[in-house]
Amino acid sequence: MIIAQELESQQNISQDVIFPPGDLYSDEPPLETELHLEQIILLIKCLKWLWKGRNDFYAAGNLTIYYSPNQKKSEYFRGPDFFVVSGTERKTRKSWVVWEEDGKYPNLILEILSPTTANTDREFKKELYQNTFRTPDYFWFDPYTLEFAGFHLLDGEYQPLTANEKGHLWSHQLGLYLGIHDGLLRYFTAEGNLVPTPEESAEQEAHKAARLAAKLRELNIDPETI
């Protein structure tokens, strides 16, 4: 009778205990606004398009970074709105697990401010990314107020970046400027040219082809025969 009761008790306990999976998906809260989502997608899409020939980076948004020194996914994790890791394999991941990625932390992090997260992004996260992540480039941006700031890690402390004459801030890690264009944050080359989206790039090529065809017709050359 006693043995039967113990077995029943063990069965009840086993039903209550839930063991976490070994390979966790990112567990980030939903994005606050449509603009947050649009901004993250824009940053990822443009960078992947610009670096389409490269396989040595990882760019993601609203994805959990696990960084526990005890290698436990149940402690010490944070999900930046957008981050880039250099010198790593370009592949799909469910989350970024530092101890499974040769100890690599992001080279660049950007947080999108909102009324509920702004103070955390400006204070707690800035200190975390400076002292624990040691992330070289940190930016924040508010798509509603257009508040935009950036920092570069120098001698262990974040130093504010100075904007150029266009209001753009230089990312040492990306080799690109970040600046506001039509209300959203975009990349600009060192020469100040806007980095296009794949759609914008296709449109530019179409316009270029149309101008070339028109010029050939002026010279009495049928562009279809070339």
Automatic annotation (TrEMBL):
Q: Which InterPro entries match?
A: Nuclease_put_TT1808 (IPR012296), Restrct_endonuc-II-like (IPR011335), Uma2 (IPR008538)
Q: Which UniProt keywords apply?
A: Endonuclease, Hydrolase, Nuclease
**UniProt cross-references to Pfam families, sorted A to Z:** Uma2 (PF05685)
The Putative restriction endonuclease domain covers: 15-180
Any one GO molecular-function label of the UniProt entry: endonuclease activity
Keyword S-adenosyl-L-methionine in the entry? The reply is: no
Tagged with keyword Hydrolase: yes
CDD domains, per database record = DUF820-like
What SUPFAM superfamilies does UniProt report for this protein, alphabetically?
A: Restriction endonuclease-like
Task: Check the record and name the PANTHER family matching this protein.
Answer: SLR1095 PROTEIN, SLR1612 PROTEIN
| Name of the molecule in the record | Uma2 family endonuclease
Please tell me the species this chain comes from.
Anabaena sphaerica FACHB-251
